Amino acid sequence: VTIAIVGLGLVGGSLARALTRRGHRVLGVDRPGPLRRARRDGAIASGVTLRAAASEAEIVVLAAPPLTNRRLLRQLAALAPARLVITDVGSVKRKIVREAARLGLRGFVGGHPMAGRERSGFASSSADLFRGRPWALTPARSRRAEARVRALVRSVGGRPVRVSAEAHDRAVALLSHLPQLVAWALLAAAAGDALTRRHLDLAGPGFQDMTRLAKSPRGLWGEILRENEDEVRRALRAFSRALSRAAL
Amino acid sequence: VTIAIVGLGLVGGSLARALTRRGHRVLGVDRPGPLRRARRDGAIASGVTLRAAASEAEIVVLAAPPLTNRRLLRQLAALAPARLVITDVGSVKRKIVREAARLGLRGFVGGHPMAGRERSGFASSSADLFRGRPWALTPARSRRAEARVRALVRSVGGRPVRVSAEAHDRAVALLSHLPQLVAWALLAAAAGDALTRRHLDLAGPGFQDMTRLAKSPRGLWGEILRENEDEVRRALRAFSRALSRAAL
Hints:
- By secondary structure, chain A is α/β, with parallel strands linked by helices.
- The first copy, chain A, has 11 helices and 9 strands.
- In chain A, the strands form 2 sheets. In chain A, strands 3-2-1-4-5-6 form a 6-stranded parallel sheet, sandwiched between helices.
- The radius of gyration of chain A is 19 Å and the shape is globular.
- The mean pLDDT of chain A is 95.
- Chains A and B meet through helix 7, helix 9 and helix 11 of A and helix 7, helix 9 and helix 11 of B.
């Protein structure tokens, strides 16, 4: 199967490596530098334009940040037949799913592998990133498209989880976006206290575990949090209520 | 060296195992059930009363919950010479350090091994619990007492960290007590949402790491949080400010 991956960062790069290893022909769409590195590492067969990807690939995977993925989706709608199977790996699903519906892209399946890492970029990518991990997939207009994306997920070791875009965005706000904000705030509160800063050696494994996410890239996260702003606000309110109750 | 340990839970039991393994004579003070289990496991040489511990041991370690430790300290003051070396393993230091000063116990060294676990009780104890872990020790009136407790800490693999009771309580509020409250609140916020509860399979390793502490025993934690209430409130305020800034 020929699969095009647009954006060869941590997730796109890992997916390219995993699919190539499974014998698929992987085309990469990215800037010249990342394409060169991915080709040199054997992660992709060749680098192509989005137009070439739309005509040559059977499945196109959008693996750029959320706003870019939506722009790419609009470009693809102008280049590709409506039944082209397209999926994305973004952390928020409602907006892109609605955009695909508006564009009449019946072959679009929203996707989100639950396989983040503190590190980012192609240099941190690994063919094993998705092994055993859940991978959210939103219902599509086309059953055939759903089946093909499910097969792709399984072929790289992921566990497909069918979930509506609404339930997904609610759940990741509480299970992923809120914990990300909390990790930053825990680290900032400790580092902001002069006495504590001199005794960070008293931090145990609990504190290490709870601030590991604080190393995640802020730029990408800012975009994700804005993309899911209403659900993130709701999660913050629920968390604040729970924190007040716990502290009684 | 003969060492008495009062309270054979996770920390007291682990300390008993570690010291016995190093060839010390360990006396246990606890209820009959725990003493029987500790003797059967070879963690202690024998079970004794607090009075016997005060006269036979060179060092007495208080390893009960904070309020009980302060009561035991008052009892010891009536039983033992003022120069008896006494230390504790409680999570909060100001109150017990002040109580020891009030009682004229010059041989008291406040201690806190940074080696908690989600599990508790003698059944979870291990001779390796303190290996490589920091162990806070407060300054004492007696240099000799400080040196003896430092040697005890090192003999079980801990890293002594000399810190004032005030700095300790500030630091653990931010590095341990606040994370504990946050872990409960993250879990409660997610579990309290019906949609999310149906999709807990979307939780990644980040969420698992950040809620691991939520399994800690609530009863003991309630007592610890009340013991450090002013610093915990200060930490909660700093955290809330940092969370608001992170969420912008």
